[in-house]
Amino acid sequence: MMTMEAMMDEVVLDDILRRLLDGKEGKQAKLSEAEIRRICVNAHQIFLSQPNLLHLRAPIRICGDYGDRGKQSLETICLLLAYKIRGDLTLGYGKYSPTASTINGLPRPTDIPDNGLLYDLLWSDADPRIVGWADSARGVSCNFGPNVVAMIWNSFAGVVEDGYEFFAKRRLVTIFSAPNYRAEFDNVGALMSIDESLVCSFEILKPASSCSKTPLKKPPKIGTI
């Protein structure tokens, strides 16, 4: 179990963020094992001090699946956790949503069970071909259809070729932020931004091998939520 530690100094944290952001493609960022450990411990303490379900105000930028980032996977999670410590980030992974009180009642820390609410929050998938609920072809949790989304609107995760994908008449959107997932899918990633008026827009993240020096492509805004 991680022990309680003082939060790292703002100057130290800013220096870590600078080194992570200054890193070059394919090159490891210059972080020590002690710094990585402290990032994990501090972020862990913050997560446990907060409720399971946070109520946030726009503007918000949503990052989808950020795991399996190849050679930069350590730098990616360290950067996200460092932002969390600084106060810029809310981390989460999930799909359909039961009541807020039920989610907030889940114990932490805990192991992921083989069934139940926490298991389904992590691993359930959307399927446009079904009505209601069905067993998952992946053998984990279950699938849910568009009519379920009509009752409980939220977001889910899964590999999508274009980085984002709408579902159930645009009531739900997949955000997938890991381009070239596992070096197998040749997909792009995406970020979704929500401004103060709840207008959404997307930024496309191309795989590193095809990235140019130009800024991220920013498609036109697509509507409100």
Notes on the structure:
The protein has a 4-stranded antiparallel beta sheet, with no helix packed on it. It has a 3-stranded mixed beta sheet with strand order 2-4-3. Strands 5-6 form a two-stranded antiparallel ribbon. The radius of gyration is 18 Å and the shape is globular. The protein is of the alpha+beta class and 225 residues long. It is 27% helix and 16% strand. The protein has a domain at 10-93 and 157-224: Purple Acid Phosphatase, chain A, domain 2 (4-Layer Sandwich). Residues 31-209 form the Serine/threonine specific protein phosphatases domain. Keywords: Hydrolase, Manganese, Metal-binding. InterPro entries: Metallo-depent_PP-like, PP1_catalytic_subunit, Ser/Thr-sp_prot-phosphatase, STPPase_N. This is protein-serine/threonine phosphatase.
Summarize the structure.
The protein has 225 residues and is of the alpha+beta class.
Q: List SSEs in N-to-C order.
A: HHEHHHEEEHEEEEE
Note the overall shape. globular
Q: What is the CATH C level class of the domain at 10-93 and 157-224, in words? A: Alpha Beta
Strand content: 15-25%
User: Helical amount among residues, as a percent range?
Assistant: 25-40%
**How is the main sheet built?**
4 strands, antiparallel
Under CATH, the homologous superfamily of the domain at 10-93 and 157-224 reads: Metallo-dependent phosphatases
CATH architect. name of the domain at 10-93 and 157-224? 4-Layer Sandwich
Topology summary:
Blueprint lengths: L9 H12 L11 H17 L10 E4 L9 H14 L13 H5 L12 H7 L1 E2 L6 E3 L6 E3 L1 H6 L12 E4 L4 E4 L13 E6 L4 E7 L17 E2 L1
